[in-house]
Each structure stands twice: as C-alpha cells, then as structure tokens.
Amino acid sequence: MALMQLSRQRIAALLTCWLCMYLVACVAPMAQSSATVTPEPLPATPTAVPITATDLLQRAQAALEIGDDDTAAELLSQLLQVFPAAPETTPARLLLARSFADRGRWTSAAEVLRPLLAVPGTPAYAPALFLTARAHEAAGMHEAAVATYAQYEALNTPLAPYAAMRAAAQLQALNRLADAETTYLRAAAGEMAAGQRAAAYERAMMLAVAQERLPDAIDYARNILSFATQADYRARLLVQAADLAATAGDPATANALRREALAAFAGAETVSAVDALRAAGDLQFDPFAAAAAYRAVERWNDVIVMLDIALAREQNPGEALRQRGLARRALGDFAGALADLAAAREREPDSDTARQAALDWIQTYGQSGATAEAAALYRQYADDQPDDPRAPIALDRAAQLYDRLGDSAAATATRLELGQRYPTTTVGLTALHRIALARFDAGDLAGAGELWRLLAERGEGIGQALGAFWAGRVAKQMGDEAATSFFQQAIQAAPESYYAVRAAEESGTITAGSIPIAAPISNDDWALLSDWVLSWASGETDPGLVGVAERARLLREVGLYTEAHGEWLDGLRRAGDSPLNLLALAQAAYQAGATYPALLAAERINRLAPATAAPIPTALLRLRFPTPYADVVQREATAFGVDPFLLYALIRQESLFQPNATSWVGARGLTQVMPDTGRGIAQNLGVSDFNLDDLYRPHVSIRFGAFYLGRRISDMNGSLHGALAAYNGGLGNAQRWANGTVVGDPDRFVESIDFAETRNYVWAVYAFYGVYRGLYGE
C-alpha cells in the first residue's frame, strides 16, 4: 500500500541501504512487519548508511597503529568486499597483506597482493613485490625469493640495499656462497643504516672466510672500520681481523691490528689481543691500556705485570704505583697496597694523582680493619684539602664509617659539616636532607626548616628545588606565610621536577593545560620551534636525513619494523649534537608517527639549549611529553579509574613509548608488564587467547597497564604515590613502606622507599604527571 506508492528509484535505494547494513553489521536483516491499515510514513529520503571506503580504511589504519591486527583485518576485508572498485582498495590490500604477514599468515598475504603485482608501475607495485619476496622466504622458496628481490632491486627504490641484503641470505641458504658474498657487498655499498651496512660486510667476511679468502675478509673489516665509530665494536672487529691475519700466516699484520684494537678500546674485548701480543713477545703497546683490559676481567696479577712494565719505562710512575696498589688490594695484599699507595702519594704530593692516592690509601687502611682511624683520616683530608673536589667525598666516606661503627652522633655531625660546607654537591645535598628529615620526623620543624632553607639559599637546580619545597612544607605546617615564596622558588628552580609539582599542589597553584590530547602539533607551533632553535643555533641541515625518514617509512610499509627503527636511530647518530639536524629529525619522526626517536631528538635539543635561551616552545615540550594512542589511553584509563595523564607519565618512564621495549628482567611493551603479571591480568580481564607477545601490542599493553595501575591505586586507598611504588616495587613492599595501605604523607612515604630504583621511579613519574597536567587538557 504505502510501499507500493514508492518509486522504483526509492525502492532501489532502500534495498542498497539494507544490503550495506547487512554487510557491515554482519547480522541478518530483520523482516519487515506486515503492513497495517495506518502505516507509519517513510521519510522523504532514506537515511544514508554512515560508511565509506575512506572511513573503513582510516579505521583500519588506526587499528594497525595500536597493534589490533584482527580488527584491522576485518575492516580491510570488509572494504575489499563492499567497495571492490574503490581507489582505497590498493592501500587496503597492502595493509591487509602486512597485517597477515605480521601474524605469520604469508599465504594469505601473497594472495591479497596478487592483483597489485599485475599492474607494474603503480606506487603499490614496489611494496607488493617486496612483501611477495618475503612471502617466498617464509615458504622456504629461496630461488623464487632471490628472483623477486632481484626484480625489486631493478626498481632502484631507496630499499634496494635492503632487498639485496635479504636476497643474499637466500643465496646463502642455497649454498651459492660466492653470489651471496657479492650480493652482501652490493647491499653494503648502498644507502642504509650504518648498523645494517656493518652487518652486510660482516656476513661477507664470514663467507670469504668460508671460501678461504682471508685477505678479502680482512679488507671487508677495514671497510667497516672506515665508518664505524663505537669504540668497543671497533676493537672487537680489529681483534677478529687480527685473528684472520694470524691464521693467514701474517703475524706482523695480526699484531699491528691487535695494537690498534687495544688503542681503540681497553676492555674485555681486547684481553685476547694483549695475551697474543705478550705471547709473541711484542710489547709495543700502552701498558696502562693493557692493565685496563685485564682489570675489566679481574685478572689482577696480569694488571700488576703491566703496571710493572709502565714503572720500568718511567711512564707516569705515580699513577702506575696507585693502580698497582689497587690491584694488590683486590688480591687481599693490604700491606703491599698501602706501600704502593703511600709511594704514589709521596711522589708528587700536590698532584691530582697524589691526592687520589691519599684517598685510596685511607680507604685501603679502613678495609684492612682500621675503621675508626680511617674515618678520622677522611675528616683530616677534608680539612687539609677543603677546595679539592674529593673533600666532600672524604666526608661522606667518614660518615659511612661512623655508621658502621654505630657512632650515630659522629655520623650526624660529619654529615652536617658535609652539607653545610658543600651543599651544591650530590653528597652534600643528600647529607643535609637526611639530617633534616630526621629532625622533621622527630618533630623538630624549626631545626629541619633551617637546613632546608640552607639548601634553598645555596643549592642549585634540583637541590635548590628540594630545599625550597621542604622549607615550604615546614613553613606551611608552622603557619608561616613564607611558605608561598618557598613553593614558588621550588617551581622556578626545577620546573619539571617532582618538587615543582608538589610545590604547586601544596600552594594550590596547579594549572591545567588546554591542548587537546589528540591535537597534532600545528604548522605555527613548528615555526615557533624553528625560530627558537635558530635564535641560539646555526649551521646547515644534513640533507641525508631526508633519506633516513624515507627509508624508515618504506621499511615500515613492508613490515620491517626493526630495520625502520634502526634507520631512525642511525638518523640520531648522524644528527649528533647539531640542533638543526635534531629538529629536522624530530619533525620527520613525529610526522611519521615514530614517537621514540622524535622524543630522543627533542630531549637532546632541550639539553643543548643555552640557559640564556627564551622559554621552551610548546612544540618542544609536546615532543618530549607526547600523547600517542590518545583514544586508547583515554578509554582504558577511564575504564580503570586512572587519570590519563598519569598513565601517559607512566608509559614515558617505563618505555619511552617504544611498543617493543623489553627490559633486562623480561618486562614487555609500553607499560612494561612482566610475563607472569600479564598472564594474571589476562585471566582477570577474561582474555582467553592471551599470548605473551600480545604485550607488545599497544592496545593490549595500555589496557593491561591501566588495569594494573588502577588496581594498585585501589590497593593503596587512592594514593598515587603508593600505587606507583607498588607498580614498580611490588604491592607488598609498598605496604611495608606505608606501614599499611594508607599513605598519610606522600612525600615522606617516597623518602622511606629503600629501593633506590623505585624511589627514583616515583619521583620521575610524578614529575612527568605534573608536566602532562600542565600541558594538555581533557
């Protein structure tokens, strides 16, 4: 009836609308109810389905950025099915293939790529070819991989050297060693990160050795040395080349390379070189360098032999005696150690070596059992040499010895002297703060405030901020109006510090930022940052940094994320301490979504800026305190009762926004969740198909980190300080430091943490939290 009156055009539109809804929602369409006598009138124009190919592509890209490959694959597959003729299908195929590849589904990846390979000359052809070659690799089809990589190389893209590198590995698998060697050399000759070039030459070295062409292998090592700059790596390479020369029957070249290795780096890497030189009777090397190499592996008798050579040559005899004394002490020969150190002390009494030897003598004397005498001698040293930078160290050691002796009064008196005489040194600051805290705990607010005011007056930077903050706290507790000025002083002395944040909180001057978390850095902000850098820096920008950014982009496009990361790090190496290069790299990395290298470059710019420079521009602060994954962070933080800014601060401290970060103890991902903790969180959240590698996926890591931090906040009755301590040091320890689950005084709680790592962690995260709150708005 009413439907019968609709035009065919409107019927077709409705059917199309229903079909799209069916495909998108993947649910069966509801049957229309029977017409009634008085049907509801239809709108003049049917409501359009809010879905386009562009929308699907953008949503898929967003899913890939957070590591949600399953969702991305569903969206991309939907795009290809619903909009098969749309221009978005080309990037969709590339992204879907890469998503399959990331999950090891190489057959599916190759199938998706096939239509792109049928159209050479298009922008998608090159990445499709590279990914197809990788698919052949994964399938063990070495010949096909070599052929496909050769096709890719012929395109002469910036990734040609990387294609050659992978083709060489396939040739090696086919036992075509000569061809593999040639291909590695071709890769090494191209433009790529220095680490990759070195790796290519090293593999060519290995193949030359396998083919018994040792001179060629040595030449390849020299090629690496022409651009490698890391001292220990250069030494290791030189030792390898020396061993090759020795095997080739060229002892003169071998020994020359060993001497060069020792000169490049005196450490564990060069011990074998020293041993070989000594065995050959070749002592034409620096005995101090040889001693340092042996010291690195605690071969103390060999250290002594090398220092004896230095003494015989009259080569810096005072330092040789001092180092020999320390070696003898390590062997337990206190008498011999004291004799050598005394001789070094007396040789040139006013020299730097003699003063260090004097301190070493006192330390050795104390270790021999004369603890009280050593403490007195340390104090005497500080009195005799008040301007020596070692004087505060001497007083600090004296205080520690008094602690060991159980003489708390002498220890306190010594620390008080140390802090009052040297408040700008780390040990002086620490000593004065320790006594002030003891007075504070004992209720002596006036006495504690006196010491903190001293730090506020005479300290510098973070030391001054510490003193001013605590002086402000005491003044506030005592009803002294001076508290406000002390808090302001703390904020000005170290604006990004823990003490600045807490001072603002205590004085009620916390300012909320206004920049939306997801807002990009604007062109105007980039211009302001550039002008700021140019106001104090000059020079030319390295044009090669453009190639770095392009190679990193293309490597990411074909799923070589580690290599892309390596290009950015190589860009940082190339940029060095040039503010203009660092700015160019930071901007390129930021625009490519590479948060970590952008942050590192920005931190380096911040460090290089002179004290006389104008205030730091907003863009630099945003690069140093970035907000990637904004939607996920806000969603998960809100879900688990965590301030998004606190979660960002935690991620910055934990991983510097590196999704693939892995700590030395095995913590993984952005929020550095330990494997066992991750399994427990997965169980709590009902994640049944959890895999440990999922912790490297940003959306998983952020969710798990937010859940865990939220739980710790609850466990510590809402205390952020307690929660952060629990996150890093364990809940049981946090409750031990708090004497329960309630943190009454957050600052005193942090001071009570007896794990230095956790104490510094809480200070750092809370400081970052303050910066994020002051920079961004909800």
UniProtKB/TrEMBL annotation:
InterPro entries the UniProt entry points to: Lysozyme-like_dom_sf, TPR-like_helical_dom_sf, TPR_rpt, Transglycosylase_SLT_dom_1
Swiss-Prot/TrEMBL keywords: Signal
Coiled-coil regions listed in the entry: none
Keyword check for Disulfide bond: no
Stretch forming the signal peptide: 1-27
SUPFAM superfamilies: Lysozyme-like, TPR-like
Occurrences of domain Transglycosylase SLT (ranges): 632-739
Superkingdom: Bacteria
Protein name: Lytic transglycosylase catalytic
Organism: Chloroflexus aurantiacus (strain ATCC 29366 / DSM 635 / J-10-fl)
Lineage summary: Bacteria, Bacillati, Chloroflexota, Chloroflexia, Chloroflexales
